[in-house]
Amino acid sequence: MSDLPFAQRLFARDVRWALGHALPRLATDRAARQGDLHGQLVALSRSPRPHGDTADVERRLMDRIRAEGPVHRGRFGFVTASHPAVREVLSSNDFRTGVLPVITGPLGRLAAWAGADAPVGPLKPPSLLVTEPPDHTRYRKLVTRVFSVRAVEQLRTRAEEIAEELLDDLQRRPPGTDDVDLVSAYCGLLPVTVIAEILGVPHAERHRVLRFGTGAAPSLDFGLPRRRFLTVERSLRDFDAWLAQHIERIRRQPGANLLSQLVTARDDDGRGLTDTELRATAGLVLAAGFETTVNLLGNGIALLDRHPDQRAALHDDPALWPNAVDEMLRFDPPVFLTGRAATRDTSIGGRPVPRGALVTLLLAGANRDASLFADPHRFDVTRPNAKEHLSFSGGRHYCLGAALARMEAEVGLQALHRRFPHLTLHPGARRRTTRILRGYVHLPARLGTPVPV
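^ that's the sequence the OP posted. Answer follows.
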């Protein structure tokens, strides 16, 4: 709980919304009307048009940005959809996550004061997303071992069991009621159950954790309407309070799970994580451990429904599933973009970039770069270099849970289509309205006749 008086907390919250959302939204909308490509791409994410139309316009905008060269200078910074340029920035020490302090004077001091009262979240230190070495190295080292390829493969059998249990539940639905929302009944439950077991979350708490994650997902975006911003901050505070209680339970009754290891872990100097570091790290691992995988599962189901020839190829050759998951990640990534700030005067692809400049890295655009991917706008589960996508970012901030997400998607999608080979989607699927996290909030389907197990 903040130490500020109640009235000051309300004022600080309004300052955060004004500087982080209201003013940037006004500025980008104005830039979009004036023809700025980056502004148009941001404004498009708030468009109410159908997803298919939005995706086509979005793709054309990213193609235009890429045609400008390795990096395009927009009204508010730089943006790139070039695969080589995005990869270069992600691996460069000349760039860091977060935003360098660019507001000075009284307004800058006001922004810093208001930001100090913000809830613990993915874009506030000590989150792994916005910290850099040496802190980032220390935090990441403590959690890396549970997400290694070897550790994830040891989880595969349990993930397969969970998937089959969820499919059994779907199959036990009363006759004539095989219509189901796959996001709430399957795509959300599989990854949240896996990550909850990794972090020692009681079974009864898992729906609550899923609700926290859904409520906090827009925290990665800017330009939020005030009501949604308030909902996000409330979700983050509720999540942080729940985490504090959960960590105390773990301290009293440690088990064979990652959070128990984090509570007792010490680095070479004998230092452990502070309470704030522990909540930030555990919260990010917990939320990121299922949020992106929910999107990956839903996106994959929708892609296979729209491309029955690719679904048939997987039916004929199940060995293609790992590559198919990478092609899903390339074609419709769960994370649309990321950002970096230049820590010194530098360059991208030979183009000068000044210190403090913000660079928006369009991961989805890099994944459609024709210089690397032949016929990039075609979904092809046999694509030989599908794994070269950048959907898991890169460099020191490469996604910690990449191996886990791949495994869960492979297990979950293969099990679903094996059990329900006649699965079809209904009209009425709804995409999430978040700008950075991309997926489905509602995916209505008819399961069809199951295959006996």
